[in-house]
């Protein structure tokens, strides 16, 4: 340690200036800054262009989860998060991504932490702008240590950028070896303890070599203050920076490389003051002028004033320095932004508060953020972290995005920090900003920290990546629909390009805009090093003037909408080639790819998805059904969380944003909900939160059914799923629709969180006073209180229950009071049992609890009658309630009109499964469908088959005698035939009536298919495998003959054949000698068009085989 200290120098600071305003009307401009000059802006004539980003990390191959803790977040060290850096490490023109992982400490032994997060930091290579692949092993390890901030720069001046990132008491350098591998080393001799939070690469001493600025945050010694078994802290004060000592920031001066090694050496310098620094921003970068006086803006956290420090002898007291010196408040970072044609500074506050915007030429204390709508009350209420400034819609105006998320743990789970939606604002006319023009799909509430921008797919629209604390990385691809023009430039070598001025001119030499390559980097992170100009509707070729300290180059006749590589040393410029998507292997190009994606390993799946053009809504639905069948129905659940399955579900989810609600997305959403729920993966918790906030009632209620299961199962995402409770409760209490409230309560009832009960009791009292609140809603609230075991509700609940008369309410009161440990005798004194309650008590799902209190139900001789309360529950969205109401509605209907109305009500239920559950329950309780119902169903609903197993024997026989079954659908005939097989009393009757002569079946198959399809339906349900095989092969032969006649799957003949083959997956029994590629192709197209699910093994065998011989199949 002594030797290390000898190399440390303390730098004096200069220019700590107090700002004195000589006049309230004092106006100044940055005379040293080229970017502050009033440049005539382009007359863009551009409409306000909204931007839309689509979160695509999983789909693009980045399945990265930052893990700082696996238990509770214990203090500020777990709250600061990590960064993400954009680096084109192999110089192929496509920006790669380095993501810093969390340190992951969750256990300790004495004073030593001994468990580390296995995720670590990762490097992802961008493959031609289409997808990313994990190439962390290029650094010699499958994973790198976690840490905090990172930075990118060419430290050895070989043309390939290096990576630097910091972890506790260590700075790690990844030296780039010719864009092929990395060499890892520890650099710097900074006295411990130190916490290198943010890293900035900058030529501090202007010697032509890139140095490293290290922002040390604070002295966090968790072990010293441990006082409980969790090894963490119980109070919010442990998340406040002012409660810890500051540290001295450091500068690592680059001494160059030694012989035969590409890794540079560094001399460590320390600043004199002890600060709590989050980022260090060189003044010259903010000014966009390398000749400006040297100095840094030190953005400090609470407990230390942010400040400006100057270096060298040429310190000036310019007003820019005064502004930086004036901004003492805690800040995360500082960015420069052009507002109209003026330079402005964007200050991102630390610990909450509103963003501040100061325009050049105005008083230092004049914050324009509120006046220009660059902030809002909502933004100020959530902590801000990294920020990026870019022209997001290429309209020529700079916009900004701020990473949002609070430091403290979520109230419902201490493992997850409070998340929020990132804030974006687009600049419009007169320098004002508009948040409504910025949208993201889905709007995931994650606790974001580091953020970086880049044009990852080289389409001219800026994308961005966000590293989320204790969460999955977000990659937002810019999918803005705009025809605005643009042009971008990269520059080599990096050291010559720093702060070079790029001036864009028209062909007539009229100046359009001026920018520099280097700009303030976001907190913890590093964005791409490109100069990007959005040009709106400007369409002509342009010229570029590049002005450096010692030279000037002019490049003329540059076409728009291209990315150019500028080689400053050689004075030449080239277009970076863009690879466009090939449609030859797209989903819409053939059935092979449509189905085969389900079976591809992830290293083949992600490239395949990147080549996919936009499928139709019906194609996506078919794909979702097949995925559900193959990965969840026919295989072990262990595969449900595979990267392949999560990638495919994410891809389906992202496809939803292409379809407006008017295009009936409900069925696809329903499939997505089922798929996400079956994965049981915590990677989808934020997606579920989004769905809770956005789904309409039918799909929302299906979602809550699945969330009820998630909450019941302890092993399903135990650390993450509690965050869903607050959003469910918010929707339950705020929605104007009772149906949604009931659905939300159904999910919450399984959460086992008694604290929810307080809100429900207040809600219950409120609704009791509101005459519009239905009994169905009140019953759901009471039921939920019972599941939550909210014992504080006992007294008011007893008072409420003593006044109820309606049977379902009584039943819920009894069950809930029982769960709250009230004795049966006390319950009977509160709730009075009457004869009108008997049928409801008998039908109730908790009838055993009711029997325990009141004894067995009394069977009455009289038929049940429908009372006024039944219609209330018919529209309930809770199965345990509406099933009772429908049952009573059915059995109490006296007239034919009432029976038809009861059936109509039943058919309005969300799914046929619910109908079947009700009818099955009726049969189990001795309440079968009457003869009248059988006749009515057969007469009025001939295309429905759910009721056929519950028809009376007499109804079936009468139906057989009086109806021509050949006129019904194959599915209906198949259901009838199944009853013939399983009902012993019908077996002989059906055989005599429907079974054809087997000899005639072969010789007269075409006639039977045309005139007597019921005979084929009957044989397809036969117990004889020989008979079934004969029918199946005859159908396959008929299909081949139809194809020979030149007919397609749209023809009635082929449609009839395929319907038979699909029933019971009979196509899987077709002999190999009956199969050819044309037949297979036609059948698969038919199945897709119908949305049918195909057998997995059959599909894999024939689809893969057919791919070898045909590539001309079209959906």
Question: What is the fold's blueprint, element by element?
Answer:
Blueprint: H1 2-6, E1 9-11, E2 51-55, E3 84-87, E4 96-99, E5 108-109, E6 112-113, E7 122-127, E8 131-134, E9 150-153, E10 162-167, E11 170-177, E12 181-187, E13 196-202, E14 211-216, E15 218-219, E16 245-257, E17 264-275, E18 277-282, H2 283-287, E19 295-300, E20 307-310, H3 319-326, E21 331-339, E22 342-349, E23 356-359, H4 377-380, E24 384-390, E25 399-410, E26 413-419, E27 423-427, E28 433-434, E29 438-441, E30 448-454, E31 463-468, E32 474-478, E33 485-492, H5 494-497, E34 501-506, E35 511-516, E36 531-536, E37 542-547, E38 552-558, E39 563-567, E40 572-575, H6 591-596, H7 602-610, H8 617-633, H9 643-655, H10 666-679, H11 685-694, H12 697-712, H13 723-734, H14 738-748, H15 756-768, H16 775-788, H17 794-801, H18 807-819, H19 824-830, H20 838-843, H21 847-854, H22 868-874, H23 879-892, H24 896-907, H25 912-924, H26 931-940, H27 953-962, H28 970-982, H29 984-994, H30 998-1003, H31 1005-1011, H32 1013-1020, H33 1025-1044, H34 1052-1062, H35 1077-1090, H36 1096-1107
Parallel strand pairs: 1-17, 2-29, 33-39
Antiparallel strand pairs: 2-32, 3-4, 4-7, 5-6, 7-8, 9-10, 10-11, 11-12, 13-14, 14-16, 15-16, 16-17, 18-19, 19-20, 21-22, 22-23, 24-25, 25-26, 25-27, 27-28, 30-31, 31-32, 33-36, 34-35, 34-37, 37-38, 39-40
Transmembrane segments: 12-32
Keywords: Membrane, Signal, Transmembrane, Transmembrane helix
Pfam families: FG-GAP_3
């Amino acid at each position: 340690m002594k030797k290390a200290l000898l190399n440390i120098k303390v730098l004096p600071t200069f220019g700590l200036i107090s700002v004195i305003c000589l006049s309230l009307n004092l106006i100044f401009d940055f005379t040293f800054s080229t970017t502050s000059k009033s440049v005539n802006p382009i007359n863009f004539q551009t409409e306000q262009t909204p931007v839309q980003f689509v979160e695509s990390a999983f789909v693009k191959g980045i399945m990265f989860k930052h893990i700082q803790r696996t238990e509770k977040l214990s203090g500020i060290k777990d709250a600061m998060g990590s960064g993400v850096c954009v680096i084109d490490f192999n110089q192929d023109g496509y920006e790669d991504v380095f993501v810093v992982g969390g340190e992951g400490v969750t256990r300790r032994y004495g004073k030593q932490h001994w468990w580390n997060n296995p995720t670590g930091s990762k490097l992802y290579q961008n493959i031609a702008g289409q997808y990313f692949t994990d190439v962390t092993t290029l650094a010699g390890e499958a994973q790198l240590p976690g840490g905090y901030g990172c930075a990118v720069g060419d430290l050895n001046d070989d043309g390939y950028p290096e990576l630097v990132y910091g972890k506790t008491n260590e700075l790690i350098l990844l030296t780039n070896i010719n864009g092929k591998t990395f060499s890892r080393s520890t650099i710097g001799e900074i006295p411990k303890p130190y916490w290198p939070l943010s890293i900035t690469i900058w030529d501090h001493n202007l010697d032509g070599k890139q140095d490293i600025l290290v922002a040390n945050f604070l002295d966090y010694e968790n072990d010293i203050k441990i006082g409980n078994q969790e090894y963490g802290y119980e109070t919010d004060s442990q998340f406040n920076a002012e409660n810890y000592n500051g540290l001295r920031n450091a500068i690592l001066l680059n001494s160059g490389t030694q012989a035969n090694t590409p890794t540079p050496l560094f001399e460590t310098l320390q600043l004199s003051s002890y600060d709590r620094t989050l980022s260090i921003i060189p003044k010259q970068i903010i000014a966009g002028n390398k000749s400006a006086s040297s100095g840094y803006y030190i953005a400090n956290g609470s407990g230390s004033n942010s400040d400006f420090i100057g270096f060298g002898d040429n310190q000036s007291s310019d007003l820019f320095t005064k502004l930086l010196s004036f901004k003492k408040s805690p800040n995360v970072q500082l960015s420069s932004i052009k507002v109209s044609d003026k330079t402005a500074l964007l200050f991102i506050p630390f610990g909450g508060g509103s963003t501040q915007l100061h325009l050049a030429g105005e008083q230092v204390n004049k914050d324009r953020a509120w006046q220009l709508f660059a902030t809002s009350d909502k933004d100020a209420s959530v902590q801000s972290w990294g920020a990026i400034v870019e022209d997001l819609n290429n309209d020529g105006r700079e916009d900004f995005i701020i990473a949002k998320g609070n430091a403290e743990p979520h109230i419902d789970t201490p493992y997850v920090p409070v998340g929020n939606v990132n804030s974006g604002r687009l600049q419009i006319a007169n320098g004002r900003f508009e948040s409504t023009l910025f949208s993201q799909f889905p709007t995931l509430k994650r606790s974001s920290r580091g953020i970086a921008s880049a044009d990852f797919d080289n389409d001219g629209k800026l994308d961005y990546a966000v590293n989320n604390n204790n969460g999955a990385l977000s990659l937002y691809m810019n999918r803005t629909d705009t025809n605005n023009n643009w042009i971008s430039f990269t520059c080599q070598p990096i050291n010559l390009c720093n702060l070079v001025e790029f001036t864009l001119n028209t062909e007539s030499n009229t100046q359009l805009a001026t920018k520099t390559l280097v700009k303030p980097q976001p907190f913890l992170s590093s964005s791409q090093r490109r100069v990007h100009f959005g040009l709106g509707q400007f369409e002509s070729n342009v010229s570029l003037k590049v002005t450096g300290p010692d030279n000037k180059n002019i490049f003329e006749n540059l076409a728009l909408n291209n990315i150019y590589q500028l080689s400053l040393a050689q004075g030449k410029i080239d277009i970076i080639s863009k690879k466009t998507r090939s449609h030859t292997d797209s989903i819409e190009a053939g059935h092979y790819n449509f189905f085969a994606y389900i079976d591809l390993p992830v290293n083949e799946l992600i490239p395949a998805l990147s080549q996919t053009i936009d499928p139709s809504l019906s194609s996506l639905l078919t794909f979702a059904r097949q995925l559900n069948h193959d990965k969840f129905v026919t295989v072990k659940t262990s595969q449900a969380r595979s990267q392949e399955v999560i990638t495919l579900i994410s891809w389906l989810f992202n496809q939803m944003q292409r379809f407006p609600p008017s295009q009936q997305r409900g069925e696809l959403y329903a499939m997505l909900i089922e798929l996400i729920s079956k994965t049981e993966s915590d990677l989808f918790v934020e997606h579920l939160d989004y769905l809770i906030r956005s789904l309409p009632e039918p799909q929302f209620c299906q979602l809550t059914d699945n969330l009820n299961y998630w909450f019941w199962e302890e092993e399903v995402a135990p650390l993450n799923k509690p965050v869903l409770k607050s959003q469910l409760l918010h929707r339950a209490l705020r929605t104007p629709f009772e149906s949604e409230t009931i659905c939300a309560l159904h999910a919450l009832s399984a959460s086992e969180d008694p604290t929810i009960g307080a809100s429900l009791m207040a809600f219950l009292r409120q609704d009791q006073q509101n005459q519009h609140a239905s009994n169905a809603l009140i019953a759901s609230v009471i039921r939920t209180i019972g599941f939550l075991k909210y014992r504080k509700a006992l007294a008011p609940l007893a008072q409420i229950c003593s006044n109820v008369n309606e049977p379902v309410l009584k039943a819920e009161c009894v069950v809930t009071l029982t769960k709250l440990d009230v004795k049966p005798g006390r319950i009977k004194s509160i709730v009075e049992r009457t004869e009108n309650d008997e049928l409801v008590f008998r039908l109730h799902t908790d009838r055993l609890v009711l029997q325990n209190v009141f004894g067995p139900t009394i069977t009455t001789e009289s038929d049940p009658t429908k009372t006024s309360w039944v219609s209330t529950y018919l529209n309930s969205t809770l199965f345990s309630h509406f099933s009772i109401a429908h049952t009573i509605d059915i059995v109490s209907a006296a007239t034919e009109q009432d029976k038809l109305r009861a059936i109509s009500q039943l058919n309005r239920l969300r799914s046929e499964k619910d109908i079947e559950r009700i009818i099955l329950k009726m049969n189990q309780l001795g309440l079968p469908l009457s003869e009248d119902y059988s006749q009515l169903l057969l007469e009025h609903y001939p295309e429905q088959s759910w009721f056929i197993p519950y028809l009376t024997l007499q109804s079936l026989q009468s139906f057989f005698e009086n109806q021509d079954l050949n006129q019904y659908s194959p599915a209906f005939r198949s259901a009838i035939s199944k009853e013939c097989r399983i009902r012993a009393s019908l077996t002989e009757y059906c055989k005599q009536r429907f079974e054809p002569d087997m000899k005639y079946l072969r010789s007269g198959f075409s006639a039977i298919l045309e005139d007597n399809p019921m005979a084929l339906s009957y044989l397809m349900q036969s117990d004889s495998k020989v008979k079934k095989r004969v029918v199946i092969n005859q159908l396959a032969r008929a299909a081949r003959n139809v194809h020979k006649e030149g007919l397609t799957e749209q023809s009635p003949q082929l449609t009839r054949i395929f319907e038979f083959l699909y029933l019971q997956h009979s196509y899987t029994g077709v002999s190999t000698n009956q199969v050819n590629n044309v037949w297979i192709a036609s059948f698969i197209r038919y199945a897709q068009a119908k949305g049918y699910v195909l057998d997995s093994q059959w599909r894999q065998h024939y689809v893969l085989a057919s791919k070898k011989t045909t590539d001309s199949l079209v959906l």
